[in-house]
Design brief:
40% of the residues lie in helices and 15% in strands. The protein is an alpha/beta fold. The chain has one domain: TIM Barrel (Alpha-Beta Barrel). It has an 8-stranded parallel beta sheet, with helices on one face. Helix 7 links the parallel strand 7 and strand 8.
């Protein structure tokens, strides 16, 4: 399993400890994540929760540029988390090399960008084009997710990028209006069915819970027990240790 450690440039991030809004802070925090066992860094400048402020591409780039250039200078793989193609273009020119497609490539301009750059893409399950305002999942969630990926991957194939996709179950989003009881039950069902995504023969990438409550740690272990290929994690050392305990055959 490879880990993308999380650096948030957005001041709206709910995980306030992960916010690094200057080049110096981003350099320091990225080094900490790498020392804790992260292999790569994921960086975003626009929070996706329902109360987050929307930023224009110019505003998003002003937030991201300093931190991104500092992290790229460390010589690690950097994924940029955005749904705005103008931001993605600038970020790749500055050193990012993986697109964490926060719009699930539902904008043709972003599809064309990913095809042109021939980059790896994190493709999250999303019902709706805006992660801040997702539709409620109706029906059995794993069935809905699998059907959604089957259709989206046809589109990825049309643009020649299917084989570069990492499949993200979208649990880092979930409709913002859900209360925690509903959200946790939804995530439990999704994580229990992660192996259903193996039918697409593509890597599985999971944005893992960061709050340290007992129920969230149970969800963390449920996801890690599937021996996922990539994790997006705020606490790399903890995630690495729990993954190894659950999957001793991978050591």
């Amino acid at each position: 399993m490879e880990i993308f450690g999380v650096v948030n440039a957005s001041p709206d991030s709910l995980a306030e400890f992960s916010v690094a809004s200057t080049a110096e802070a981003a350099d320091r925090y990225a080094r900490h994540l790498l020392e804790e066992g992260a292999d790569h860094i994921d960086l975003g400048g626009q929070a996706s929760h329902g109360s987050a402020n929307f930023v224009t591409p110019d505003e998003e780039w002003a937030i991201l540029e300093g931190p991104l250039r500092a992290i790229a200078a460390l010589g690690v793989t950097v994924s940029v988390d955005t749904w705005q193609v103008e931001t993605a273009e600038r970020a790749f020119d500055a050193g990012a090399s993986v697109l964490n497609a926060a719009d699930a490539l539902q904008n043709e301009a972003m599809l064309e960008f990913a095809a042109e750059r021939e980059c790896d893409v994190v493709l999250p399950f999303m019902l709706g084009p805006d992660p801040r305002h997702l539709k409620h999942v109706e029906g059995e969630p794993v069935e809905v997710m699998v059907s959604w990926f089957a259709e989206r991957l046809k589109e990825m194939g049309r643009f020649g990028i299917r084989e570069r996709c990492y499949l993200d179950p979208g649990t880092g989003f979930s409709p913002a209006h859900w209360d925690w009881e509903e959200r946790s039950e939804y995530q439990r069902k999704i994580y229990s069915g992660l192996d259903r995504l193996r039918q697409f023969d593509l890597p599985i990438y999971v944005p893992l819970p960061w709050k340290q409550t007992e129920d969230r740690l149970e969800l963390l272990d449920l996801a890690l027990a599937h021996d996922i290929d990539f994790a997006r994690a705020h606490y790399p050392a903890q995630v690495r240790a729990r993954h190894e305990a659950l999957n001793p055959a991978t050591l």
